[in-house]
Amino acid sequence: MAFSFAAFCFMLALVLTLALIFFAVWRIVAFDEIRRESNNPSDSPETGKQQQIHKIEKLCRMLKKLIVPEHFIHCLFCLMFLCSHQWLALLANIPLLLFNLWRFLRSPTKGPRGRFDPSCVVRPHVLAVCSREAWCKLGFYLLSLFYYLYSMVYNLMSPI
């Protein structure tokens, strides 16, 4: 049994992937909440509408806070796998890294106030795209979790 740098990278990737899964689940729940808030008719025209707008703005602010940590963690994965010469893991992560970069530069929810602008997110087609993206990322992170777990055990059990 050997503890190598590759095993350490997979251990760290395993723990950080759990954080990314949490981010993806939170994003799915937030988009579902935005969809529900934007579709519900309010009881009283003034106070109900203001509460809905305030809640949607709050959710969008929280979603904006998840962007940088998610992209940083994913860049860290790619850097770790590059340094540990784990080419298959690096190759599997590069498409999502490029997608995150492309999405960061060109987003369907970029309004006058940046990414996840409340006035843009409530549009049904934008909300559908964002929800689909969150579900796809959740699937990718779940598959990655099992791959990292397998690779960690494999690297721990293999001789140096």
TrEMBL record:
BP GO annotations: vesicle-mediated transport
Membrane topology label: Multi-pass membrane protein
A GO term from the CC aspect: membrane
Annotated keywords: Membrane, Transmembrane, Transmembrane helix
Chief localization: membrane
InterPro entries per the UniProt record, alphabetical: Cornichon
Superkingdom of the organism of origin: Eukaryota
Protein localization: Membrane
Segments traversing the membrane: 71-99, 138-157
Family classification: Belongs to the cornichon family.
The protein's name: Cornichon family AMPA receptor auxiliary protein 3
Originating organism: Eptatretus burgeri
